[in-house]
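Example 3.2
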Amino acid sequence: MESYYKINSKLKWLLLLCGVFQITSCRDIQENKNYVLATTGMLYDITKNITPSSLEINYLMGEGVDPHLYKFSQTDLQKLNKSTLIICNGLHLEGKMNYILEKISRKKTVISVGDSLDEKKLIPINEKLHDPHIWFDLNLWIRVTEVVTNNLQLKYPDQKKIIENNSRKYIEELKKLQLYTKKRIEEIPLSQRVLITSHDAFRYFEKAYNFKVKALQGISTTTDYGLRDIQDLVDFITNQNIKAVFVETSISPKGIEAVVKGVESKGKQIKIIEGLYSDAMGTFGTPEGTYIGMYKANIDKIVDALK
């Protein structure tokens, strides 16, 4: 039975790849020149805010979706087939989709915003890779907005002025968010700026605001953690008298819950703060379903818990 499911899964993947090869071999008649697709909710928010209403904007990864583990579906194939411009994060964030996006880029315009940034501004993981969680650095995200803006203007030159005006307004809102963030974080003493989460998605945040970030998992949620990792984090929390740990919306809370039990077994108390947004935003149609609303919600949770 197990072998059957493995074979069935492989067959499904091969069928999807066949669909991808169909896209890359010719322009499908269903392609819509006014249809723009973003991989993540954060990029969807930028694109939606700066494009004119004449363009149709869609996304692949919605509320609570972990892009590191995202599985390509038949519905995604239809969206890719319809799109004329695809905007992705790059820097290997969309890990399992990299091959597909590379194939599609031979026939469709695919913009990898992370790979368009100044490498000196990125945080290295090793000699070849960089941390993909660039949306937690507001300066970088303003630059990403400019990259998206420039590419939309190239694709839709007749809409250039509208895109430019919308982009300017959106960047002004991002700059207001920067001021809000700086003011709120100043409420936390430097010695208490320690952010403990499930996976290491907050390095850019750490660098921008003088935080120390500790996580059970590495940059990608595909990284496993073990008892040693849990115990090391328990020891760190108890030695540093940390006030709170944070559970991310797109990741199982089991690891952090194990850490909290370990801390409590040592006679210490610690708060669990739920609802921290890392790799995905909140529900579309709510404040947290926008990039600015998500970022602000994170700041308020972090400051209120640690100050």
